[in-house]
Write a structure and sequence with these properties.
Elements: E1 9-10, E2 13-14, H1 15-45, E3 50-58, H2 59-69, E4 73-75, E5 86-94, H3 96-104, E6 109-114, E7 117-122, E8 131-139, E9 150-153, E10 159-161, E11 167-174, E12 178-182, E13 189-192, E14 201-202, E15 213-215, E16 220-222, E17 230-234, H4 235-241, H5 246-250, E18 257-261, E19 270-274, E20 286-289, E21 292-294, E22 305-311, H6 314-317, E23 328-333, E24 344-357, H7 365-374, E25 378-380, E26 385-387, H8 390-397, H9 401-409, H10 415-418, E27 423-436, E28 439-451, E29 458-473, E30 476-490, H11 494-502, H12 523-526, H13 538-543, E31 545-562, E32 568-587, E33 597-620, E34 624-647, E35 662-663, E36 669-688, E37 692-703, E38 710-721, E39 734-748, E40 760-770, E41 773-780, E42 791-804, E43 809-821, E44 824-828, E45 837-841, E46 843-860, E47 864-882, E48 902-905, E49 908-911, H14 914-918, H15 922-928, E50 936-938, E51 953-957, E52 962-972, E53 975-985, E54 988-990, H16 992-997, E55 1021-1030, E56 1036-1042, E57 1067-1069, E58 1072-1083, H17 1086-1089, E59 1096-1109, E60 1131-1142
Parallel strand pairs: 4-7, 8-14, 20-23
Antiparallel strand pairs: 1-2, 3-5, 6-7, 8-11, 9-10, 9-12, 12-13, 15-16, 17-22, 18-19, 20-21, 22-23, 24-27, 24-60, 25-26, 27-28, 28-29, 29-30, 30-31, 31-32, 32-33, 33-34, 34-35, 34-36, 36-37, 37-38, 38-39, 39-42, 40-41, 42-43, 43-46, 44-45, 46-47, 47-52, 48-51, 49-50, 52-53, 53-58, 54-57, 55-56, ...
């Protein structure tokens, strides 16, 4: 929609700033309310009045009832107090003193109230039945004290945390009690007191395996209890990669999750697919950060990530209903819930240098001149041969003295070197967490900076976050968190970098006085007769242009959780999110444009989610465990944008936000949209004895985007821990074996806000007559399809998890079959309809595949540890129907039972050389498209004796046939070495690099070309590089010889390809194997760092992307489909040094 908009500021303060301040005030208010409410609850608990009416009830049940009705807890020894004795208790609004007096009156039990503890003893207690004060020290395996370890009397709330040196002192401990020692990352230990007053323990690191906890959407589960397909990526894995992007760290970490980078530039985006492409319009997965739904996760700092879980099958994603068909990525950042000690401070940082690598084999000056000569050959039909006219001879070098001198000296201009430099990157993140009484908190701040390899490229990212949780009592908790991120990316002049790579090496960048030549390719600059190119010097273009993106994100959430009875929790969470993105560019006037130009695009979105979750968990008779979750969720979005274009400024300020020139109304536009969704969901989990598991989920979504608003998305899953069966107990080498089977539906409503509503045509002006009064207004917009329904994805998944040899070898295998139906996309309508296109449910797509993950512990002893992880995934994508039919749509390159993204063209096998061509009759030449020698030898695939469009075939697909990765870590004492290898195989692309620089794919003979085997006819003039003519002034001039035919050439020259070559000149295999990173690290012994109050210190060296193995001809196969101006440039290798500290 295009329309005039009101100013976006009032009272001198921009509207977005006022909204941001309002959101920050709201978040701060929630945090304050959380804290004050927590203290208020705690104070109120001290004056609790108790009402109990119990008859002939055991003392144990009476104690439990009093604990549930108050904030007090009983402390006693079972060997001293007979809790099976039955008694009566009836009180009404009594305080705790009155309750205890009535309960113990006439018994031999003594009680003492200390804080919230009620200590029970008998008059004749001695020895182990006495109440003790226990002291001790908690250390790690190296003998160093562990601060922040929780020490608690089992079954009570009597506990504390160890001090900085690992010491503790705990009073009111029964002589036969049990002490529980726990610390994050360590194995929990239970130690009987046995009448001792001094107890010291050594905690060992825990090994996380099948008991790992993973996010399942609106909750979490132990991995051993999962029935769906979910893969997890740890914070250690993310931090070890050393990239500035969370998505970059995920690459290759999870089987079935295909991630590729789109650009070589700082802040570059990524493409991601989970188990193939489900829609003809592609589709990213749903991102959930700390329970908040977001569009992407580029704004996060990798050092702030605690864990990432990827939900892949329908059983797992069905809880997100209409937004889960493309998979769900759940990100958990470091929050207050992870705080375990009074105070913990950590620092993670690195600094790195980026160098350009993998320079393609471009033609040098003489090779490029030979190519340029070939492009001037013409066909002489009379003599049946190629010729080079005298005028075209001159045009090869434009009779340029400067060009000829460069060819003679073989000294050329390194345009790429002039426009690039060594880049750098750095990341610093500080995290502070702790716990004070019942309040835990976490504060983090991060700064990232990248300097790109092209001039003027850079990125700065600032992240600040905080969270606080308060468990006011066993019945009530509150909490809040927020994240603020500000990212600034400047990519310089996109056209400058594009033209930098298009400049031929024979043209100079500077004149004799060292000044930049404004147009290096015109005759005035090269002292010649004609022009190579009229383009501006790209170095001037780079200096005179800027392209900047500023992104500002605020995420917040606040929750209240009530636990009225054991096993039941009710949690309400409100999560607002604000995003503002401003994209602007400014280009000064030069030979590329007659006037200066600028554009300012402003996008703003605000959305909120309100989730209400009821969870009930109950275990019956030890072996039966039930968990029910009920969810009600509301979601609302608002989005608006304003784009303003202007040109011809009186002064070149360089600022895109000072639009004082002529406003281009035809290029300026604005828009606004709102959407909403209301959802209800339920999930039930049951397991028997940890062996048999059942999960059922259903979600009911209503969306404002569709006329048929409501749809249900059910799923079910089964799990069987085969290894727990009695008949498997003798199979000692099998540690774990669990089979999983799931079936379910998820959906997608990825269409614009008003696709089912007819909106006005704001580009038109229509005059309406109201009883003789004529008024102007908008015309009626195009008809819409009010019958649109949801995209639905049906999925089967069968998998099994395994562990061998005490889980030294473990992993998972999954087989899946997905069918996405009712795909939403635009379809072309007939001319008679009067409408060009309309959104419709037009087809179905199937994805079938296998995923394998294997983890091994190869060596593990006192000094050595060697682990390896392997992933493999293969997906088969196929269209099953189009427009309600099982028929191919050839003009759209859509074929039934074939992948969505196919390349459909003629199949070519070399060229017709002169001998082949001469042996053919004129009819054969005409039938096969061999009008001249050097034309492409197209294959008659239907074998009807002539070349037609029916001979086109599917040559390949841009989607990989399989992906895989290998990660290995070898450690010796404090030294560790690791590497990660990632591969994508079977990738076939219409390559952007060859479209620019391939000798068979581009008509521009003035651009650089990459060395490839192209056809050269025989008997025509060719440069003789063995000699030069020198004129009277000493100026060298090219001399000529006669060419020999390159009879076995693999490809024709552009312009002489024939009618059946298609785009074969830019097709190539983009498969690759990359060593993503190699890391060498050293962890300092705690005895060396303890004096600096450090509990952990590690230094490491990291190399990112050191090696790429591929047959791809170009910069980098990973972004082969990206244009030059969008970042298809040289790949880089980065050398980092990093440091991790914990205080």
């Amino acid at each position: 929609m295009k329309k005039k908009c009101k100013p976006i500021s009032q009272g001198g303060i921009p509207l977005w700033i006022r909204k941001t301040l309002l959101l920050m005030k709201f978040t701060c208010l929630l945090v304050l309310l959380t804290v004050f409410q927590s203290f208020a609850v705690k104070t109120a608990a001290q004056g609790t009045q108790i009402s109990v009416d119990m008859k002939n009830t055991t003392m144990e049940n009476i104690f439990q009832t009093i604990e549930e009705e108050s904030s007090y807890y009983f402390l006693y020894s079972r060997s001293v107090i007979d809790v099976t004795r039955k008694a009566d208790l009836k009180v009404d609004n009594a305080n705790i003193q009155q309750v205890l007096e009535q309960l113990f009156n006439g018994t031999d039990i003594n009680y003492k109230i200390e804080g919230r503890q009620i200590v029970l003893t008998k008059d004749n207690e001695t020895g182990s039945q006495q109440v003790l004060t226990v002291t001790g020290t908690v250390t790690d395996v190296n003998g160093l004290g562990l601060p922040g370890v929780t020490v608690v009397v089992k079954g009570t709330t009597n506990g504390m945390v160890t001090d900085f040196d690992g010491n503790y002192t705990l009073s009111n401990v029964a002589g036969d009690a049990i002490l529980v020692f726990s610390f994050v990352g360590m194995q929990t230990q239970e130690v009987p007191v046995a009448g001792k007053s001094s107890i010291s323990v050594v905690l060992e690191e825990e090994t996380i395996g099948i008991e790992e906890v993973v996010a399942v959407g609106y909750g979490s589960m132990k991995k051993s209890d999962l029935t769906g397909s979910i893969s997890s990526v740890s914070a250690e894995r993310i931090a070890s990669v050393g990239t500035s992007s969370v998505m970059g760290a995920l690459q290759g970490a999870s089987a079935g999750v295909d991630i590729t980078t789109n650009s070589t530039r700082p802040g570059a985006g990524f493409s991601i697919q989970v188990r193939g492409q489900n829609s003809l319009n592609s589709g990213d997965p749903l991102y959930v950060v700390d329970g908040i739904i977001v569009d992407d996760i580029d704004f996060l700092n990798p050092s702030d990530i605690e864990k990432i879980d990827v939900l892949k099958d329908a059983s797992s994603t069905a809880i997100y209903g209409s937004r889960g068909s493309n998979g769900v990525v759940i990100v958990q950042t470091k929050g207050a819930s992870a705080a375990k000690s009074k105070l913990s401070i950590s620092y993670d940082g690195y600094y790195g240098v980026r160098e350009i690598t993998r320079i393609p084999d471009f033609m040098d000056g003489r090779e490029w001149t030979d190519f340029r000569t070939s492009r001037y050959y013409t066909w002489d039909e009379t003599n049946q041969t190629y010729t080079l006219t005298s005028s075209n001879k001159t045009a090869v070098t434009q009779n340029s003295t400067i060009v000829n001198q460069a060819l003679y000296d073989q000294k050329y201009t390194d345009w790429l070197g002039l426009g690039t430099k060594n880049g750098s990157q750095q990341n610093h993140y500080v995290n502070i967490s702790g716990m004070a009484q019942d309040i835990s908190y976490n504060i983090g701040a991060g700064y990232q900076k990248e300097e790109g390899n092209f001039l003027e490229e850079k990125m700065d990212k600032y992240v600040f976050k905080g969270s606080i949780n308060h468990k006011a009592s066993k019945y009530f908790s509150t909490g809040a968190n927020f994240t603020m991120s500000h990212q600034i990316v400047n990519t310089g002049s996109q056209y400058g970098y594009r033209d930098l790579m298009r400049m031929p090496v024979v043209l100079p960048a500077y004149d004799e006085e060292g000044n930049l030549i404004e147009q290096p390719g015109i005759k005035a600059s090269i002292n010649g007769d004609g022009n190579f190119t009229s383009s501006a010097n790209p170095l001037i273009e780079i200096q005179s242009g800027s392209h900047e993106t500023r992104r500002f994100d605020i995420l917040g959430s606040a929750f209240v959780e009530v636990r009225p009875i054991e096993g039941l929790s009710i949690k309400s969470t409100f999560s607002p999110r604000f995003n503002r993105t401003r994209i602007g560019y400014y280009y000064e006037a030069n030979s590329n444009r007659s006037v200066s130009q600028a554009e300012n695009d402003n996008q703003e979105s605000f959305d909120w989610t309100w989730d209400n979750v009821v969870n009930y968990n109950r275990r019956f008779n030890v072996d039966h465990n039930l968990n029910f979750t009920f969810i009600q969720s509301a979601y609302k979005t608002r989005y608006e944008y304003l784009s303003i274009y202007a040109e011809d400024f009186a002064y070149d300020s360089g600022w895109y936000n000072m639009l004082g020139g002529t406003i281009g109304t035809g290029n300026s536009e604005s828009g606004y949209s709102q959407t909403s969704m209301l959802s209800f969901a339920a999930r039930a989990n049951y397991d028997y004895a940890g062996k048999y598991m059942v999960t059922g989920t259903v979600r009911y979504d209503g969306s404002s985007k569709l006329a048929d608003k409501w749809a249900a998305f059910p799923s079910a899953a089964l799990g069987w821990r085969v290894s727990e069966e009695p008949f498997m107990q003798d199979v000692r080498w099998l540690s774990n074996l669990k089979a999983r089977l799931s079936f379910g539906y998820s959906g997608n409503n990825n269409i614009s806000a008003y696709s089912t509503m007819q909106t006005p045509n704001t580009d038109s002006t229509v005059y309406y007559d109201f009883d003789g009064t004529v008024v102007s207004g908008f015309g009626v917009g195009s008809p819409v399809n009010t019958a649109l329904t949801w995209e639905r994805t049906r999925e089967w998944n069968f998998g099994f998890d395994f562990g061998l040899f005490n889980n030294k070898v473990n992993g998972a295998v999954d087989l899946y079959d997905k069918l996405s139906d009712g795909l939403l996309m635009s379809r072309t309508l007939t001319i008679e309809s009067g409408v060009d296109d309309m959104t419709d449910n037009i087809g179905s797509v199937n994805n079938r595949g296998i995923e394998i993950t294997v983890n091994t512990v190869n060596i593990e002893n006192t000094d050595w540890r060697w682990t390896t992880s392997f992933t493999f995934a293969s997906n088969r994508n196929a269209i099953r129907s189009l427009y309600g039919k099982k028929e191919d749509v050839v003009n759209e390159a859509r074929f039934i039972d074939e992948p969505i993204n196919v390349i459909y063209d003629y199949k070519v096998n070399g060229v017709y050389n002169y001998a082949d061509w001469s042996a053919m009759s004129s009819d054969e030449r005409s039938a096969m498209g061999a009008d001249r020698p050097g034309y492409a030898r197209a294959i008659d695939t239907d074998k009807d004796g002539e070349m037609t469009t029916d001979d086109k075939v599917i040559l390949g697909s841009i989607d990989p046939s399989w992906t895989g990765s290998v990660t290995s870590t070898l450690s010796y004492k404090k030294l560790d070495l690791s590497f990660n290898i990632y591969t994508r195989q079977g990738v076939f692309v219409n390559d952007r690099f060859l479209q620019e620089f391939g000798p068979s794919a581009n008509s521009q003979r003035g651009r650089p070309k990459v060395n490839m085997d192209y056809y050269v006819p025989g008997g025509v003039p060719r440069a003789d590089w063995s000699t030069f003519d020198i004129d009277d002034s000493g100026q060298p001039w090219m001399t000529w010889t006669t060419s020999e035919e390159n009879a076995d050439a693999k490809m024709p020259l552009y312009g002489y390809t024939g009618n059946f070559y298609g785009s074969n000149g830019s097709y190539q295999d983009a498969s690759f194997v990359k060593v993503r990173n190699i890391t060498l690290g050293y962890t300092f012994d705690k005895t060396l760092i303890s004096k600096a109050h450090l509990s952990y210190a590690r230094i490491y060296l990291n190399i990112l992307n050191p090696f790429t193995f591929t047959d791809y001809v170009g910069w980098d196969p990973e972004y082969a489909t990206t244009t030059l101006q969008n970042g298809n440039g040289p790949s880089t290798v980065t050398y980092q040094v990093g440091l991790n500290l914990k205080f």
